[in-house]
Input
Amino acid sequence: MIHSRQAMFAAAMLTMGMMTTSAGAAQIHVRPVLIELAAPAAAATLTLNNRGKGLVTAQVRVFRWTQIHGRDRLTPTRDVVASPPLLRMVPGRDNVVRVVRIAKRPVQGEESYRLVIDQIPDRSKKRTGVIFAVRYMIPVFFHARGAKDAQLSWKAVRRGRKIILTAHNEGVRHERVSNLRISFAGKTQVISNGLAGYVLGRSSKTWGKRLRLRASGTITIKGQGIHGPIKAKARLR
Output
């Protein structure tokens, strides 16, 4: 199954600092912005379109995506490939990239990857000021049929003036968390408007936020997940 909801475009662009650009610099339109495949399916296509006025060069790479100590980590992989890896795109023309899992072993649970698309600046042209690079990062998931859905548990710890909020996923499939908020002593504090991040299967995701909470107690955590609202409680220590 491939999802291409337009509302998720901003989510894909904001996660993990995945785009750095100046206003009006982005020229590549990418669809879909999320790839999700159930075994035995192992291939999907991505369409890139140059909406600028000049030739654009883009590099396409795939990285294995894991979470270590609550933080996202990308590492090179040969299990999934993107073809072609380099595109020279003329304005207005669709360019198709094929994403294929070539690993021979069966998918166990869920495998998570990031498709990284870098728009390469044209250094042959004379420019003044800073040359900006545009980066898109598309989530790619391969999962076994019947894999257990996400099941989150939460922990909140005070560190100085920060609250460290951690979601642990006891399920196999990933969870996408957005509009994350916590309530304590009658006050609601925003952790993230829009996409807060993904919690991968059998992994944890951590958020840090400077909050004016002086006492300990129970906090209420609210947000939006893939299948509906998130509501949980955690003891603030």
The first strand starts at residue 2 and ends at 3. Residues 1-24 have pLDDT under 50 and may be disordered.
